[in-house]
């Protein structure tokens, strides 16, 4: 059964008591740019059936290679009682934004990380 819940931090989430397929769909015009909405599209008794359904659903979405990676829809196969956020700014938790990737490293000027300190 698909249900709405909240995470331990109080963020709205969706879950199911069965294996389920989640579609992370990018919100389109007129809504917050760059955000994704997640919806449970089907439920299954076992992992194998869920993965097969997720692959079929992904194939039905079609290829969207002309869309930048950060803006593409995504499909997940989730275990029972896995809480998926209803809305998120990024496709996945592990995907970093450009500003997070561009942070400078803490190195002293004139020396690289691999160079050793000169001996006196």
Mean of the pLDDT scores? 78
Uncertain parts: none
Straight-line distance between termini: 70 Å
Helix content: 10-25%
Structural class from helices and strands?
Answer: alpha+beta
* Total E-strand runs: 7
Tally of alpha and pi helices: 2
Q: Main sheet, how many strands, which sense, barrel? A: 4 strands, antiparallel
Give the SSE order as H and E letters.
EEEEHEEEH
Q: Could you tell me the radius of gyration in angstroms?
A: 20 Å
Strand order of the largest sheet: 5-3-4-7
**Binned strand content:** 25-35%
Shape, principal axes of CA atoms: extended
Q: Overview of this structure, please?
A:
Helices cover 16% and strands 30% of the residues. The chain is extended and about 65 Å long. It has helices at 47-61, 98-101, and strands at 2-6, 12-16, 19-26, 36-44, 74-78, 84-85, 87-88. The strands form two sheets. It has a four-stranded antiparallel sheet, covered by helices on one side. With 120 residues, the protein is of the alpha+beta class.
């Amino acid at each position: 059964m698909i249900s709405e819940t909240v995470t331990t931090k109080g963020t709205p989430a969706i879950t199911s008591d069965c294996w389920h397929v989640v579609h992370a769909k990018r919100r389109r015009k007129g809504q917050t740019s760059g955000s994704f909405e997640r919806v449970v599209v089907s439920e299954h008794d076992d992992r194998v059936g869920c993965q097969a359904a997720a692959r079929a659903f992904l194939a039905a979405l079609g290829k969207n290679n002309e869309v930048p990676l950060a803006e593409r829809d995504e499909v997940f196969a989730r275990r029972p009682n896995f809480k998926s956020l209803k809305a998120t700014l990024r496709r996945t938790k592990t995907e970093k934004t450009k500003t997070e990737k561009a942070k400078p490293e803490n190195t002293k000027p004139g020396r690289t990380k691999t160079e050793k300190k000169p001996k006196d």
